[in-house]
Automatic annotation (TrEMBL), chain A:
<feature type="transmembrane region" description="Helical">
    <location>
        <begin position="73"/>
        <end position="93"/>
    </location>
</feature>
<protein>
    <submittedName>
        <fullName>ABC transporter permease</fullName>
    </submittedName>
</protein>
<dbReference type="Pfam" id="PF00528">
    <property type="entry name" value="BPD_transp_1"/>
</dbReference>
<dbReference type="InterPro" id="IPR000515">
    <property type="entry name" value="MetI-like"/>
</dbReference>
<keyword id="KW-0472">Membrane</keyword>
<feature type="transmembrane region" description="Helical">
    <location>
        <begin position="149"/>
        <end position="168"/>
    </location>
</feature>
<comment type="similarity">
    <text>Belongs to the binding-protein-dependent transport system permease family. CysTW subfamily.</text>
</comment>
<feature type="transmembrane region" description="Helical">
    <location>
        <begin position="207"/>
        <end position="230"/>
    </location>
</feature>
<feature type="transmembrane region" description="Helical">
    <location>
        <begin position="12"/>
        <end position="34"/>
    </location>
</feature>
UniProtKB/TrEMBL annotation, chain B:
<keyword id="KW-0732">Signal</keyword>
<keyword id="KW-0574">Periplasm</keyword>
<protein>
    <submittedName>
        <fullName>ABC transporter substrate-binding protein</fullName>
    </submittedName>
</protein>
<dbReference type="InterPro" id="IPR001188">
    <property type="entry name" value="Sperm_putr-bd"/>
</dbReference>
<dbReference type="Pfam" id="PF13416">
    <property type="entry name" value="SBP_bac_8"/>
</dbReference>
<feature type="signal peptide">
    <location>
        <begin position="1"/>
        <end position="23"/>
    </location>
</feature>
<dbReference type="InterPro" id="IPR006059">
    <property type="entry name" value="SBP"/>
</dbReference>
<keyword id="KW-0813">Transport</keyword>
<feature type="region of interest" description="Disordered">
    <location>
        <begin position="26"/>
        <end position="57"/>
    </location>
</feature>
Length: 280, 404
């Protein structure tokens, strides 16, 4: 019967993944949004199912949450810029200069850090940045010191963690730039810099934006790195974690969690306009 | 198309609500169990939760939620082990989870996955009011009679003369410093507040709203004009003063700690050199640090073993509560953690014979001078009736603001 009814076949094939997407994924998000409209008894910590917008009112009126939101977006943006600046030359070398053998080796090298656990890498940076760590040891003879734990440490560590996610899409994007275009540019008198600036960069831009979706969204939701190397600073993820994990205020945590969702929706809408989503 | 789409959306939303309702069903039980009531009992009545009448056959395991260092099974240090003897004696396998803060303990108890918890005074009333813990039948506990009398029937562990747990031990939060760096040795909490800039970028503090009480305690001694009588009973102005002090402190803080291992690591690497601590942390780090009780006195804890209202292994839970308050176990925990044991018979069993004198275990006057962690509520705990105090929710918001 399935042979004669292609519609049914496709339907059966697609039902489980669609159910997963619809119920588990979107359902969880919907549940989160519903929770954010409830409130909590401060003393017992029990959730009270009374409809209220208090959580959002608090989120928008208490100054500290605005500061934290702006700080989080700023850090995510900085990490993205740092990664883009670091990734572009590496990806360009991989795609256009290196021999096929070197190319393969470099791809493996870029992927290697992904084999190690996220936590191990973050703790490795904690050791690096420590008062008795290698950075202090190298910097001290020059009268400098380790940046210590704080926002600079967070930016360094996050840039390190997410760099492969930027390099790979940019590398893929640059591979698609035909060599003939580069030759044409040089035939017409364009030097290396001019070629990169006027031919390669415009063509690689959607790939850069595609990579930035990863680095930006991953940074936006991170809270573990901040706890390990962030010193006293806190990001949106920490506010969610503290309210859910410590203060037990799930409704407010849910309200805070909608902020990165909104930011990412706006970001993705902008990314779509430059055609970056086709480069993913 | 439009119609189908909105139908799908509605279905998804319903599924979400359903999933949520079942997920929350367990955690919100007893929320109607009362919030406001008589003043003597800290402003609430306890929800009606049945008490166990007898100890039946052990279930074979018990899930223990404890402060770090309260249930050691030899995995940290081979010689530190009082869980294994319990397992052999009772036939209950002990599954231990350590928590970092009282907030986390309250949160984890709501999951219903733990049978017993070592709750501090800033968690006990919240657990009782939330219906998360059951009254404890002290007649079933052979060691209860030996517990120091000044720990029984206290505001934070009983309601209307009914005990909700068995006292475990008590102690003070201490000021720890790196002996090589911090000279001269500090004698006042001022070292981490007004004089914190001496060690700028190397100060540490406890990452929990309850730490606001440490600032309030310091203000109580240094700024009598504020009129703070009890560091857990702060009106708006007093809380604001404490928040200002903590904001000024933050500029000199390297990082806050809540996980005790994080503080151990930070002191070992030299990233922190001075800050609040527990004796067990100082003991773990070793000789490079010293921990002192500053002249202003201190905040501290008085812990109680409580049993979950949803305990799956209540018999093993009772066996654990009885075991952990036995003189032998108490002597080991108290010496390892660095606190006064609740069972004073333990004093004869400590390896250091003067241990109980050092920790004033039998000295009820000393015990009354420590400001034990208590949940702040809007009804002022110091007896003021002309004003409304800030509650724990206000403290939580204030703590987020302090950290910026």
């Amino acid at each position: 019967m399935l042979d004669r009814r292609p519609g049914l076949r496709v339907g059966l094939l697609l039902t489980p993944p669609m159910l997963w997407l619809g119920v588990a994924y979107l359902g969880a998000l919907a549940a989160l949004l519903v929770t954010s409209l409830w409130t909590q008894d401060d003393f017992t910590g029990n959730i009270e199912r009374i409809w209220t917008l208090d959580n959002f009112r608090q989120l928008f009126t208490v100054d500290v949450y605005r500061t934290i939101t702006l700080r989080t977006i700023g850090i995510a943006a900085l990490v993205t810029v740092v990664d883009a600046v670091l990734a572009f030359p590496i990806a360009l070398y991989m795609a256009k200069v290196a021999s096929p053998r070197t190319q393969r080796l470099l791809v493996i090298a870029v992927l290697t850090p992904l084999w190690a656990s996220y936590l191990v890498k973050a703790y490795a940076w904690r050791g690096m940045l420590s008062a008795d760590g290698p950075i202090a040891w190298i910097a001290n003879p020059f009268g400098l010191d380790t940046p210590g734990y704080g926002l600079p440490a967070v930016i360094i560590t996050l840039s390190y963690l997410w760099l492969p996610y930027m390099i790979l899409p940019v590398y893929a994007g640059l591979e698609r730039v035909p060599d003939s275009l580069l030759e044409a540019s040089s035939d017409l008198g364009g030097g290396s810099w001019t070629t990169i600036r006027r031919v390669v960069l415009p063509m690689a831009f959607p790939a850069l934006v595609a990579g930035s979706i990863f680095t930006f969204s991953l940074s936006l939701g991170d809270y573990i790195t901040v706890q390990i190397v962030g010193g006293t600073s806190q990001l949106l993820g920490n506010v969610v974690y503290d309210n859910q994990g410590a203060a037990n205020n799930l409704p407010f945590a849910a309200a805070v969690a909608t902020v990165p969702i909104v930011v990412m929706v706006v970001y993705l809408a902008l990314a779509r306009r430059v055609g970056a989503l086709e480069d993913l | 198309m439009r119609k189908t789409r909105s139908k799908t959306l509605a279905a998804v939303a319903c599924a979400g609500v359903l999933a949520l309702a079942s997920a929350c069903g367990t955690s919100s039980g007893g929320s109607d169990g009362g919030t406001k009531a008589d003043a003597d009992q800290g402003g609430f009545t306890a929800p009606d939760v049945p008490m166990q009448e007898s100890i039946g056959d052990p279930e074979g395991q018990v899930n223990i939620l404890a402060w770090p260092g309260y249930a050691e099974d030899g995995s940290t240090d081979k010689s530190i082990d009082w869980v294994t003897p319990f397992e052999k004696e009772s036939g209950c396998q002990a599954n231990v989870k350590y928590f970092d803060t009282s907030d986390q303990a309250v949160q984890l108890m709501k999951t219903g996955e733990y049978d017993v918890v070592s709750a501090s005074g800033d968690a006990t009333l919240r657990l009782i009011a939330g219906g998360d813990v059951a009254p404890v039948n002290t007649d079933l506990l052979t060691n209860y009679a030996d517990i120091a009398p000044f720990l029984k029937d206290q505001k934070f562990n009983s309601v209307d003369g009914q005990m909700y747990g068995v006292p475990h031990g008590w102690g003070a939060n201490l000021l720890m410093y790196n002996k090589d760096v911090v000279k001269p040795a500090p004698t006042s909490w001022g070292a981490v507040f007004d004089d914190a800039s001496t060690y700028a970028g190397k100060v540490t503090a406890y990452d929990s709203p309850i730490y606001i009480a440490d600032a309030a305690l310091y203000l109580m001694a240094t700024q009598p004009d504020l009129g703070i009588e009890d560091p857990y009973a702060l009106d708006q102005d007093q809380l604001a003063a404490a928040v200002d002090l903590l904001k000024a402190q933050k500029g000199n803080v390297s990082e806050y700690w809540s996980n005790y291992l994080k503080e151990v690591a930070a002191f070992k690497s030299g990233d922190s050199v001075i800050g609040t601590t527990w004796q067990v942390i100082a003991s773990t780090i070793g000789d490079s640090v010293a921990a002192v009780l500053p002249e202003e006195g201190s905040t501290g804890w008085s812990d109680t073993w409580m049993i979950s209202s949803e305990a799956k292994n209540p018999n093993c839970g009772y066996l654990w509560m009885d075991y952990i308050t036995s003189p032998e176990a108490q002597a080991q925990v108290a010496e390892y953690f660095g606190e006064a044991p609740a069972n004073t018979k333990a004093c004869d069993l400590t390896t250091d014979t003067s241990f109980c004198d050092t920790y004033h275990a039998e000295d009820s006057d000393f015990a009354s001078q420590i400001h034990y962690w208590t949940t702040p509520i809007s009804q002022c705990l110091d007896g003021r009736t002309d004003t409304e105090c800030t509650d724990y929710g206000d403290w939580t918001t204030a703590w987020t603001e302090i950290k910026g």
